[in-house]
Amino acid sequence: MESYDLVVIGSGAGLNVLNVGLQMGIKCALIEDTKLGATCLTRGCIPSKVLVHPADLIREAQHSSKVGVQFNIEKIDWDLISKRMWSQIDESKQIEEGLSQIPNLTIYRGIGEFIGEYEMEVKSIDGTKVIGRFKGERFVIASGARSLIPPIEGLEETGYITNKSFFGEKFPKKPWKSLIIIGGGVIAAEFAHIFSALGTEVTIIEMLPRLVATEEPEISELLEKNFKKYMNVYVNYRAIKVKQKKNMKVVIAQNMKNGKKIEITSEEILLAAGRRSNADLLKVEKTGVEMNEKGWIKTNEYLETTKTNIWCIGDANGLYQFRHKANYESEICANNIFGPEENRRSVEYSSVPWAIFTYPQIGHVGLTEAEAIDKGHEIYVAKKYYSSVAKGFAMGYEEGDEDNGFFKMIVDKSYRILGAHVIGPNAAILAQPFVYLMNSGFTCTLPEVSGESDITKLTRACPEAGSFMPIYHSMVIHPSLNEVTGWALGNLRPINIKMDHHEHHHD
Predict the structure, then answer these.
(1) Which of 247, 341, 488, 497 is the S-S candidate for 384 at Cβ 3.0 to 4.6 Å?
(2) Same domain as 393, residue 297
(3) Could you read off the pLDDT of 201-230 as tens digits, one per residue?
């Protein structure tokens, strides 16, 4: 039986670990059942953003009337938009070409499953034949996740699409006339924005009380108000049945509170109801690798599974399913596999950022207000609206507008930033500096203690680590949207602060 020094399952962030092994000259194997590059490159964040940008331009053109400029959109060239999108997906071919020429690497194009502690079998993609059996000294599971298919009556018979089939065999030759999206999370919000802007009649059905439930409730509320200008939104509704009606598809949804049923007809159905683990396909239980109650692979702070010499990164461990988080883990994983034991690194997730490229755009890092309170923090919260700064007004945002975006920051008693959240233009860009701030100042040179009065300031190695003080001491470009985040400090308000008798707070 063939034996490898390193086996990597999944060609997304797993390639980062694989490349380190290849550079070290060890014998490696890669297993992938779809296009190389995995979800982000071939059916997720990259191709979807090629579709998002034209949608953004359409919405911006419509918004421009608020500042006295009227645009007419003469044509939407779906063929050109599609061509540009496929050019990104097709980069997977170049990745495969490059990897196929590396002598110490074997690529297995199929579905891998464990058949013993450190033994694996790979079946062809259609599952009809075995294309390889081998042993591995070390395994890295970077197998990602797949669309969760809810148990809806008639769904399989009627047919549907997921993000995977959309960026594959079911990609439309032109935008659908009507589309029902089941789900209200990140994928649903982005697709709803794309197709509603392109002229599709979009309907969202979400069983939770609000859209994008990972975000602050105020952000969900603002997004829903803006979505309702362009599409139909049903929150607190669960899709219970799907059926075919001539050439159309019908979804019957039921209100979660009062049981009322509605019937919606569309040309196509997109399922965006969440993601599920691929661990069941790998049969990881045959190795001693444990999963949690939702089927995600358990990992410790070093990204080790419950089985020695098997690590897990990315979506497969169910923690923050974003490519940048997977890349971060791949770097730590490679260090922990190939570096000296004393230099092992642990993962830290307190400042994981993300963006939802919908309209309005959403940026997020760290805890929400509710999460911070649940974790026992005493907090201040600051909020500032786009309309309250000169640049925001110049862009057409006024107090009371339904699309008036805002920034919200959560800090603890020591002014350490716990979370930052933005909804509005350039939200991803405005949120990113807070990622840097939350990670800054933890390595520093302590000042020399000159007297007793200085000792209390050194209770932490770096008293200002992760705090908002660098903003407080900095100039902010005027007039720019940076003032939305930079000037929010003036609006800090205590939420659940328990004041000691000698403490006081200045607004």
Answers:
(1) 488
(2) no
(3) 999 999 999 999 999 999 999 999 999 999
Look at residues 137, 230, 223 and name the one whose alpha carbon lies nearest to residue 184: 223
Whether residues 102 and 239 fall in one domain:
no
Q: What is the CATH number of the domain that holds 260?
A: 3.50.50.60
Amino acid at 50: V
- Domain hosting 367: range is 360-494
Strands (E), 335-434: 353-356, 362-366, 379-385, 406-412, 417-423
Q: Are 369 and 485 in contact (CB under 8 A)?
A: no
Q: Is the dihedral of CA 413, 416, 419, 420 positive or negative?
A: positive
For the chain, how many structural domains are there in total? Answer: 3
DSSP 488: G
Q: How many CB atoms lie within 10 A of CB 413?
A: 16
Token pair of 268 as six digits: 């196509």
**Residue 458 belongs to domain with CATH number:** 3.30.390.30
User: What would the pLDDT profile of 277-331 be if each residue is shown by its tens digit?
Assistant: 999 999 999 999 999 999 999 999 999 999 999 999 999 999 999 999 999 999 9
Of the candidates 184, 178, 202, 318, which has an alpha carbon nearest to the alpha carbon of residue 238? 184
Task: Decide the pairing of beta strands 178-182 and 417-423.
Answer: unpaired
The predicted pLDDT at position 440 comes to 87
The answer to whether the CB of 395 falls within 8 A of the CB of 332 is no
Q: Which SS3 state, helix, strand or coil, does residue 235 take?
A: strand
Q: Which of the listed residues 228, 252, 273 is the one where a domain comes to its end?
A: 273
Q: Which residues contact 503 (CB under 8 A, 6 or more apart)?
A: none
Alpha-carbon distance of 458 to 447, in angstroms, equals: 9
Instruction: Please name the residue that has the structure tokens 């993601």.
Output: 275
Token pair 């603002």 in the structure block, residue: 222
Percent of the chain with pLDDT over 70: 94
Peptide bond into 360 cis (omega under 30): yes
Phi/psi zone of residue 329: left (φ > 0), alpha (ψ -120 to 50 degrees), beta? Answer: alpha
Name the pTM for this structure.
0.92
Amino acid at 285: E
